[in-house]
Design a protein that fits this description.
Blueprint lengths: L4 H14 L9 E2 L6 H8 L5 E4 L16 H6 L4 E4 L2 H5 L5 H13 L3 E6 L3 H5 L3 H12 L5 H4 L3 E4 L13 H19 L1 H6 L1 E5 L7 H5 L6 E3 L7 H11 L3
Parallel strand pairs: 1-2, 2-3, 3-4, 4-5, 5-6, 6-7
Helix pairs in contact: 1-2, 1-12, 5-7, 7-9
């Protein structure tokens, strides 16, 4: 919940210029709902894609305060974040809610960025894999082998989000590898290799490359470091070794 529409447009204007020759990496911006349309207009002519921070699973109706997949699509979104830890732990979303949102996004032609991750107490209890497996299998229960390659899985340990306490690259890789294995068990190794897996949790310019060097980490879900154009551009440049 950062940036007014005008502030979002100003950020994007600076970012477009800074990323003009960085086409080697796909960049997706997910601003708050009120900024989607003006940011989409500012992105015209650039390679940067637009995404929503959340959605509701119904197409329309008496669901005050909610935004449908079709509304996001009409605003110019290609992607949507689903199951972010704040949605789960602040707003009480269940695994079943997340599954319905994933299904609705895919049906509308949006690519879901599905977030999974454990609480600190769960990690300390040795439950990381059990939690991630449960979240992953529940969210993808209605997704076919042909559809799963459109999804991005973002591993975001809850204890590392906005805390400055990032997971080590080795630990993040271990969970990403487990996610890949779980996907292979569900859909086969060929389909599992097509799914992009991201790490999210206090990703910064000075640590992003540590994660992206790992074989099963294909990208980053970036929070606070995306709020300043220069910092975000530096992070993206570092991710491709510039």
């Amino acid at each position: 919940m950062n940036k007014t529409p005008q502030e979002g447009v100003e950020l994007v204007a600076k970012l477009k210029d800074a990323l003009r020759d960085m086409a080697a990496v796909e960049v997706v911006l997910c601003p708050p709902y009120p900024a989607l349309v003006p940011v989409a207009e500012e992105l015209v002519g650039s390679d940067i894609k637009l995404g929503g921070q959340d959605l509701f699973w119904e197409k329309e109706g008496a669901f005050t305060g909610q935004v449908s997949p079709g509304m996001l699509k009409a605003c110019g979104c290609h992607y949507v974040i689903i199951g972010h830890s704040e949605r789960r732990h602040v707003f009480g979303e269940t695994d079943e809610d997340v599954a319905k949102k994933v299904r609705a996004a895919i049906d509308e032609g949006l690519k879901p960025i599905l977030c999974v991750g454990e609480l600190l107490a769960e990690r300390e209890a040795g439950e990381t894999e059990a939690v991630v497996e449960r979240q992953l299998k529940a969210a993808l229960a209605g997704v076919t082998a042909e559809e799963v390659s459109t999804a991005i899985i973002a591993y975001e340990p809850v204890w590392a989000i906005g805390t400055g306490r990032a997971s080590t690259a080795k630990d993040a890789q271990a969970v990403a590898q487990f996610i890949r294995k779980t996907l292979a068990d569900l859909y086969g190794e060929e389909k599992a290799e097509l799914v992009r897996i991201q790490y999210g949790g206090s990703v910064k310019p000075d640590n992003v490359n540590q994660y992206l060097k790992e074989p099963d980490i294909d990208g980053a879900l970036v929070g606070g470091a995306s709020l300043k154009a220069a910092v975000f551009a530096e992070l993206i440049g570092n991710s491709i070794g510039r």
